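re: ur question from earlier - yeah i can do the single chain one, its not a big deal. heres the input i used so u can compare w yours
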Amino acid sequence: MFRTAFTLALLTSSTASAAGFDVLDRVAISGQPGHFSESGVGSPSAAADEIAGEMVVAFETQVGAADAACPEGRWAVGLASSADGTRWTYGDAPALAPSATLPCGARSPSVLADLDGRRTAWAERVVTGVDCRGACPSDNGIVEVHIRGLEAATAPSVVLPFGGQPSVVRDRNVHEMYLTIDGDLWQAYETAHGGWMLAAEPSLTKGEVDWTSTRLASPSVSCGDDGDQPYELHFTGVGHDGISSLSGWSDITSEDGVEFDLTGLDEPHLQLRLPAMPTLSVVRTTTGGRVAFVELPGRMGTVIGTLVSGDDHTALTRAASRHCNP
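and the output i got, formated as tokens:
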């Protein structure tokens, strides 16, 4: 059993309604030798495919070094699936990779399995040397690709020319995307014509509490159990001291999925002291639990570990889809 070298400290909050996440001492997904993922995997996005009866996780992996053309390197998005949360099957090829549309590739994916069996992935376009004339933008646009199995079924298309780190849910048969723009969290809606429209104001702004004063990132949205507050938002924040802070499953909920209130959340539910800001994806289970997939440092590049709420380490077999008001 693989153990990663990291330290977790549980923090309490006046709004916390549960003990938070327990740490699993295993790694769910890691880079595979001789595979396009061999440099390490990160930025997970997890979704339950209720039709196939399995969990699907999208991840980013670096496939090329940084140079003048690609100042942040070249990146790809891959997929892995599992029926039991223990044994994982990896796609033979990336779902998104460097191409004419994406010269430096894509990263920070979001994957969603619709109830009709379709799978779709969204990801942030990696900046190019042209983009970085002056300074590299922090949010460089969102691309979309349809998935068959664990690989791409269509060519990628740019759906938003701005934003980063997408997290997509489906609400009343409409896709809704939560994304980062300049350190704030925004929402966008898929239109009837297949395009996307950005909300008039951010859903959550940095600086509402001290530990988010620098920026908010890595949104992960799912549908909660409370009928009055069905939208559940998990995210990371960085304060002035640069400590990366990760919320546990918390009372950060919303009635309409548009506005989220941080009042009373003076400390994060779970704090990770790591060299870089962690990324995460949270899914709920049919029994009311939560499973978080978190990027962590490993011996051979980054890996993706799992945390669960409570002591039920078989929770992944009962994951629920990210569909609100189906």
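The chain has one domain: 8-324. not sure if urs matches, ping me
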